[in-house]
Design goal:
Shape: globular
CATH topology of the largest domain: Glycosyltransferase
Distance between the termini: 55 Å
Structural class: alpha+beta
Number of domains: 2
Largest sheet: 6 strands, mixed
Strand content: 5-15%
CATH architecture of the largest domain: Alpha/alpha barrel
Amino acid sequence: QALRDTLVARIRANQHDDGGWNYGKAEGDPGQLATAGDIDMTGAAMAALCVSGVPNTDTDIVQAKAFLKSKLVANSGAFNAMFGINSDSNGWAVSGLNACGINPQTGDFLTSLGRTPVDFLLAQQFNPGGGFKYQPADTVPSAYASADALRAVAGGGFTAAPPAPVTAGAPQWVAQGSLASGTATKLALSVDDGTGSPKVCSVALTPTGTTTTLGAVLDAATGAATPAGCVTAVTPSSGTGTVTALNGKANSGTGTWKVSIDGGAFTTASRGTTVGVGDTIAVRWGA
């Protein structure tokens, strides 16, 4: 705890006058403290403070939040970053907000034109394919940007508690090939109703087998999604049949609900669609 307290003190001391942080040391140097903060490092510093027990009501976190808000681009939800708008910076900022329990899709982070930092990230994703661009003009995905963006849209911060090894002394991080029945897990879900304001959330559920279903994920999302509101209602509410309505929007003519699992082709959304461990689920309404 003493080491953690020392690290928190050093992070606090390096916060710039504008509320952000940068890559280099600024502590004790008024000139450096007066320079502009960086989006990426502000997200990282916020996360480090919050996972160390600093509440999101703390003055330093409130100032950092205000710094990020001041850098939002109204028509896209991007942040004006040091190297231009990009997925990595948005990903780091969103992950920092997530780690502090600050919703990046509403309130201070919903722009006057109805865009959020998560909207910007989703706009950089290739479909099909699933990878993310580094910058909007790019024509190929970036592995680094994809990792940062996926972590952010899935609702995670930068840290996660490693699983306890079954065998003493064994590595803590091990591959998981399937869901564990009866063991709580989280899955990433995006819902796009075609109005230009997709919602992204992390859904907590406890599977009853080595796989689960789209219906089970949607049902769980109505009450166990972070942030809440990703899914409010599903029709039908049971069975394995076709999803005919979601969040009050029903299938109509060629406009129907479709689902893509891990960047695959969009197909008719059925409650019985199989979902596996680590799958990213995208549900959208359209032709």
